[in-house]
Amino acid sequence: MQLTVNGTPVFVHTGGRDIDSARPAIVLIHGAGMDHSVWSLQSRYLAHHGRSVLAIDLPGHGRSGGEPLGSIAALADWVIALLDAAGLERAALVGHSMGALVALDAAARHGAHHGGRVEAIALLGIAERMPVHPDLLAAAHAGEQSAIDMVIGWGFGPRGHGGAQGGGCPTPGLALIPGGRRLMASVRPGVLGVDLAACNDYGQGADAAAAVDCPALFLLGALDKMTPAKAGRSLAARVKTSQVVVLPQTGHMVMTEAPDAVLEALTSFLSLRRG
Question: Are 223 and 251 in contact (CB under 8 A)?
Answer without folding.
Answer: yes
